[in-house]
Design goal:
The complex is a heterodimer of chains A (115) and B (111).
Chain A lengths: L4 E3 L2 E4 L5 E6 L6 E7 L6 E7 L2 E4 L8 E4 L6 E5 L8 E8 L9 E2 L3 E5 L1
Parallel strand pairs in A: 2-11
Antiparallel strand pairs in A: 1-3, 3-8, 4-5, 4-9, 5-6, 7-8, 9-10, 9-11
Chain B lengths: L2 E3 L3 E5 L4 E8 L6 E6 L6 E6 L3 E5 L2 E6 L4 E6 L8 E8 L7 E3 L3 E6 L1
Parallel strand pairs in B: 2-11
Antiparallel strand pairs in B: 1-3, 3-8, 4-5, 4-9, 6-7, 7-8, 9-10, 9-11
The chains are: A mainly beta (115), B mainly beta (111).
Chain lengths: 115, 111
Amino acid sequence: GAGVSQSPRYKVTKRGQDVALRCDPISGHVSLYWYRQALGQGPEFLTYFNYEAQQDKSGLPNDRFSAERPEGSISTLTIQRTEQRDSAMYRCASSLALAWQETQYFGPGTRLLVL
Amino acid sequence: GQSLEQPSEVTAVEGAIVQINCTYQTSGFYGLSWYQQHDGGAPTFLSYNALDGLEETGRFSSFLSRSDSYGYLLLQELQMKDSASYFCAVRASYNTDKLIFGTGTRLQVFP
């Protein structure tokens, strides 16, 4: 079966514009996670969902960042009024069950560049 | 704050054994995971330890000592394809699946 997919793979935008990043998890996976990864660093947690419920958004940097997963499958991470410091790789991951020790499967990421 | 420390880089030759250490300072501890990430690729899961001791999965093993807040990943019979970055990650709270990742260790395997 297909893995986690993300779109777009690359996004270049101008400062002040809004962007929406999409994640399509592995079919049947209950949990979905968003991370941000700077070059040479480990993934930094942003938020996660179980089904459609957002369980933890403590990693979202500020109120310009939001995420939703309205039907418990595809998720969108939205960044409003982008700033240059938002430039990074944004990764999505999904896991099969609610058990926290479940393996997280990462997607290829969306590389965001804010000019 | 919460932090996971790893060596920034490790080098070894093919066929050798290498150990990548991870020390953590977190508010709680509910398991240590290891992920591998090749350049340009996505992190992929390698192993998980919830209890003290050694877990073996083929050429890779992972160890945990909760009393020392310490774990390591052991890679045996190194191959060129093992050249990658390796991250440890901790779940620090019982009421969230949030993972805190370490700083990462870049492993270079030479022929």
